[in-house]
Structure formats: C-alpha cells, structure tokens
Design a protein that fits this description.
By secondary structure, the protein is α/β, with parallel strands linked by helices. It has 14 helices and eleven strands.
C-alpha cells in the first residue's frame, strides 16, 4: 500500500508508475482445472495456455482488458506482457496472442477488448515526450487486423474528469494548470471498448427475443407504483402550492396515470427497445466502480485496514462488470463459451456465469488465479 500511495502522489512520474509491481507469484508452464461451476481455468502464459488447452474455432466470444503498456507492471516474468520494455516489444507479444485468438474464435464471431490511451514511458522517451500519449487503441486494432480479424465496432465509456484526477493525479487535469497555462491541459482519458470480428459466416445467430426479455413487467409495475405514490402525496397539499409547484405535481400525476403496457409481452418490448438503445449508443455511461469484490464474493468478512497482507486479494485494474455485461449481452447467446486470456481475479468469469454462459479463463499470476477459482 505504501508503494501505491507513492505512485499516486502529485509528484509521481510516469517512470514510477511503470515500475509498480504488485506482490504476485507467476508460474512457468500451463495447467488447467475445471471449477465446480464448470468454468475452465488455465494457469500460465495466455499464448501457451490457448495453444495447449483451447481447440480451434471453439470460442463464441472473447472479452478482455490487456495490460496497458507503461501503466502497470504486474511482475518481472518475461512472459508477462505488462513487463515489456518497449512499445515494439509490447506489440510483438500481443501479435502472438492475436494469432491464437483468431484461431480459437468461431467464424463470424467477435472479440472485444477494453483499453485506454496511456502516457509515454520515460524509459523510451525524453521527459517532455513522456507527457504525450500513446495510442494503445490504434496499436491493438492494427495488431488484430494483421492477425486476420476485422475492425467491427467501438463504444466509448465516459469518465468523470474530477474522479479521474482524484484517482490518477494526472498532470493535465489539474485545475491550477488550467488557471496558469491551459496548453498542458487535456481531457480525462475515456475507456475504449473495441470489437473485432473473425471473417466467415456466423453459424448460430445471436438472437434477442423481446418476448423473452425478463423482468420488464415487474420493472414497469414498480415504476408506476412509485409515480402513483408521488402523485398521491402531491394531491394532499396541492391546494396551498404555488403555480410552478402545482404544475410539477400535475405532471407527476399524469405520469402515474399513464397507461401501462396491456400485457407482459408489450412491457417486454418496451424494455427491450430501451436496452437496445443503450447497447447501440456509441457512448456507454456505466458505473466504473462496479467491480468484483473478491472477499465479498467468496463470503469473507471485511477485516479492515489491519487485515493480514496474505489475505488481501486485490487487483489494481479490474474491468467494470457493466462493461463486461454489455458485451456478453450483445455478442453471445446463453450457454455459449466466453474467453478471457487475461482473467485476473475472474471478473469476466463472474459476469459470464451470472448470464448463463460457459467460461474459459487464462491467468499468469498464481495469486489472482487462486482467488478467481473461488469466484467463477
């Protein structure tokens, strides 16, 4: 924790961020086990793990967030992509993975990766250049295109600049820089959710039947009940209300009296269309703090700041569950297989299981791998 505090000080440099390495144990070679829920968990390097344990054209969807070059270094293991010394080395390593992902994906199916632009490393560039950004998104798209995949679509996830400043102490987000010299200011870096497609015909359509969209009728009923309660409360004191307030209350009553769908089928269609609009939007507004809580997920109580170091199972960059949920909902059917070659603590596996999908995860760090076995 002391090292983490040091990283996020305002004085922290890009170099200190590059050198951050959580206390994880990594392994050589690969091994695979099947969890009680049926998930296939592979311990080892993602490229070797896919080669050894995943058959050709056996994966329906892949969702992952790769290590961002220069942001975190998870270990000193040469097989760890986060440990690359240069941008060229990072691209070379990702190229090996891209070819394996192309091999294991079914024709016509999709692979989605999450990434962000990150500052250049002072290991490769001057201090001045280190304040410029690296286009990791563009690099990854080119790498996957070279492996044979097609650029299919992209969504951008909104990030609050104030929260980003608190979390990262990014130099370009400081208000005092805006006051003094805004030439150094920049926007909070958004998350990119990029989807690539394997050429070929999709043998099994990914259908979304509006009549089977669950929970729509209950959601509508709850919304109507809430509006009715507000309208009833408004009626109690409407006599003494001013014109503006009375108008607002009248609007509330009107909303409560709106005719609900005639039946569950119509309610499902209404909710289904709302969901489609959310997924079709180029901008996703999601709760980025909704991530997997390892201790809570496996039923262990929070032990506070004095908990034993060996009991702390955390991950510095867990992928938000709403992002994973959107991708799985959009690009896979229930019962199909979802792959994450950077499984970490198992965030993708947790969401896949919640949504009725099978899961294959590969993780190099034994610490994260062991924790994920209790989750997926």
């Amino acid at each position: 924790m002391e090292k983490m505090k040091e990283i996020w000080k305002p004085e922290a440099t890009v170099e200190s961020i590059v050198d951050y390495a959580p206390p994880v144990h990594v392994v050589s070679g690969t091994s695979q086990i099947v969890t009680a829920s049926g998930a296939r968990m592979i311990l080892g390097d993602c490229v070797e793990g896919l080669r050894s344990h995943v058959a050709d054209a056996s994966i329906d969807l892949s969702v992952f967030s790769p290590p961002f070059l220069g942001l975190y270094r998870y270990s000193d293991n040469p097989e760890d992509i986060s440990n690359c010394a240069s941008r060229d080395e990072f691209c070379e390593h990702m190229g090996h993975l891209a070819r394996e992902l192309f091999r294991v994906l079914k024709p016509g199916r999709l692979m989605t990766f999450h990434c962000m632009s990150v500052p250049r490393s002072t290991r490769e560039f001057s201090a001045e250049m280190a304040f410029s950004m690296q286009d990791i998104r563009g690099d990854l798209i080119r790498i996957f295109e070279e492996a044979g995949l097609l650029f299919h679509s992209e969504a951008v996830v909104y990030r609050d600049p104030v929260l980003s400043l608190v979390q990262t102490k990014a130099y370009g987000l400081w208000y005092k820089r805006f006051v003094a010299d805004s030439s150094v200011c920049r926007q909070a870096m958004p998350d990119h959710v990029v989807t690539m497609r394997k050429p070929g015909t999709n043998a099994v359509p990914i259908a979304h039947d509006p009549e089977k969209f669950g929970g729509a009728e209950a959601a509508w009923a709850a919304e109507a009940a809430e509006a009715s309660a507000e309208a009833e409360e408004a009626s109690d004191d409407e006599e003494g209300a001013g014109a503006a307030q009375a108008k607002k209350k009248k609007k509330t009553k009107k909303a409560a009296g709106a005719a609900p769908p005639k039946d569950a089928k119509e309610a499902a269609v209404v909710a289904h269309r709302k969901r489609w609009i959310e997924l079709a939007s180029p901008f996703w507004f999601v709760n980025l703090n909704d991530t997997v809580n390892v201790r809570k997920a496996i039923g262990l109580p929070h032990r506070g700041p004095k908990e034993a170091e060996e009991d702390k199972v955390t991950h510095p960059t867990p992928l938000a569950k709403p992002i994973i949920r959107n991708v799985i909902d959009l690009y896979s059917n229930p019962g199909e297989t979802v792959l994450d070659p950077f499984s970490g603590i198992g965030s993708t596996g947790v969401v896949a299981r919640e949504m009725g999908r099978s899961y294959v995860g590969v993780e190099l760090a034994e610490t994260y791998y062991s924790a994920s076995l209790n989750l997926v």
